[in-house]
Design brief:
By secondary structure, the protein is α+β, with helices and mostly antiparallel strands. Helix content is about 60%, strand content about 10%. Strand 4 and strand 5 form a beta hairpin. The chain starts with a helix and ends with a strand.
């Protein structure tokens, strides 16, 4: 027999098998043929595998969204992964913000309160950005990769064997149908032989599929360990971020609320410590000079006295309502304290105008 003849016969046999399965499947759907049911244990294993695949895909995809919210970046990483190439390193949002803050701080002047604070905030943002990179890398290796390996590896094998089992079941039921329809003794004998073969092949495929499906329990145990690794990576990340922000908070909290520069020009900014109550009075700073120390009156001094003081306005301020007084930078106004007033505010007067003014916008004068 030539190779061509063999291929023709094989194609004819495959076509016959395909047609037989199609007829059997159609008759089952129409209720015109009986269907061999799988045993309950195998059905439960198949359902468990399908459920595992469904939720593994959803968890994996949402974790990717969590770690990389930018869909374009995820697509790019996917393409590079399929090409087996390393994706180019790009700065993340925290690092970009941090660099902007540092550049702004240097532009305003590291010696000014605002410039110094911006630089410190920028450095912290960049450290958080680096911690975010570590979280993404660790989670990809210890959590996402095992989930993806299951979807693209183990489950594909299960799906392949499940499809073979479905085909073997159709072959078995088609053989049963042909045996029922056989009239002649010779046809019955051939159909019985075919039924024994298809039954054996179906049983063998059912056992193979069952063994594979029983491995789902091991998959769950492995994914549980991966989940623990993911949680530990998140704990490390959030602990780092908390420590970075705590350190930054302490640094900013040590900043005075107003500064006087060496050239006697206002260069202050408002910096509040988040851990200090809003009722705590904000004090002005004492700046050393090369020859002597210039002592600036503090707000607490004013609060304790019953008189008024002159104050220079550091920044423009637009009154939010009629009870407040709008301010212009560098103007000098009269300020005094009223019992029961919020510690962050003073009463200000400019001629016949009077209203509340924020103390962080003021530099008290001698």
């Amino acid at each position: 027999m030539s190779i061509m003849d063999f291929n023709v016969k094989k194609l004819a046999a495959d076509a016959g098998t395909f047609l037989s399965r199609a007829v059997q499947f159609t008759e089952e759907k129409l209720g015109q043929a009986e269907k061999t049911e799988l045993d309950a244990h195998l059905e439960n294993l198949l359902s468990k595998a399908e459920c595992t695949k469904h939720w593994t895909e959803k968890i994996m995809k949402q974790t990717e969204v969590l770690l990389q919210p930018n869909p374009n970046a995820r697509i790019e990483e996917f393409v590079y992964e399929k090409l087996d190439r390393k994706a180019p390193s790009r700065t993340n949002n925290q690092e970009v913000l941090g660099q902007y803050m540092i550049d702004a701080g240097n532009e305003f002047g590291p010696g000014t309160a605002y410039g110094n604070a911006l630089i410190k905030c920028g450095e912290t943002q960049k450290r958080i950005g680096m911690a975010d990179r570590e979280l993404i890398q660790t989670s990809a290796i210890n959590f996402l990769t095992p989930l993806r390996n299951f979807i693209e590896g183990d489950y594909k094998t299960i799906a392949k064997e499940k499809k073979l089992l479905h085909n073997k079941r159709l072959d078995l039921d088609a053989a049963k149908t042909r045996l029922k329809k056989a009239k002649m003794a010779e046809a019955k004998a051939i159909s019985e032989q075919e039924l024994r073969i298809t039954q054996s092949e179906f049983d063998r495929q059912a056992e193979i599929t069952r063994l594979l499906l029983e491995g789902i329990s091991s998959t769950h145990a492995h994914h549980l360990r991966c989940l623990n690794d993911f949680v530990e990576a998140q704990m490390t990340y959030y602990a780092q971020c908390y420590q970075y922000m705590l350190d930054l908070q302490k640094q900013l909290g040590s900043f005075p609320s107003a500064f006087v520069s060496n050239n006697n020009q206002p260069s202050a900014t408002s910096m509040s410590n988040a851990s200090v109550s809003s009722s705590t009075a904000v004090t002005t700073s004492l700046l050393p000079s090369t020859s002597n120390t210039i002592v600036t009156p503090t707000v607490s001094d004013l609060k304790e006295s019953s008189g008024s003081r002159k104050a220079r306005v550091l920044y423009d301020y637009d009154a939010a309502n009629s009870s407040e007084l709008s301010l212009l930078a560098d103007e000098v106004i009269t300020v005094y304290s009223i019992v029961g007033m919020d510690s962050d505010w003073l009463m200000g007067e400019r001629g016949n105008q009077k209203g509340k003014v924020p103390i962080t916008y003021l530099e008290l004068l001698n």
